[in-house]
Amino acid sequence: xxxxxxRQEEEEKVAEEEAAxxxEEMRLEHERKAAEEEAAxxxEEKRLEEEKKVAEEEAAxxxEEKRLEEEEKVAEEEAAxxxEEKQLEEERKAAEEEAAxxxEEKRLEEEKKAAEEEAAxxxxxxRQEEEEKVAEEEAAxxxEEKRREEEQKAA
Length: 155
Prior knowledge:
By secondary structure, this protein is mainly α. The chain has one helix and no strands. Residues 60-155 are annotated as: Disordered.
């Protein structure tokens, strides 16, 4: 009976040890599974973080591209405005030069006209003076002729 009891106790002890070993094995399996799930969760988190970072970088790149395009557009508009301004300035200058040329032309035309009028006046004056001289000479000749006739009469 003692031997049977001892054998039963040993069997119970072996069964308890087996149960403890299985429980430990199960606990370790749970821990391993939990660790794998945590590792998978962390890997997914990291992947999402990377995707977010890539998306943010792409958004920043696109924003910078848009900013540069807008700057380029503004620069082109400014260049066009300056070119238009320069063209208008050149047209204004050309118009001023043409106006000055026409004014000078008109002044020279008026000077020429005044000179022609002065020349005509002087020519008329000279002609009149010559006519007066001829008339005076004719009057002197007639007076001299009359005086001679008077003298002849008197003689």
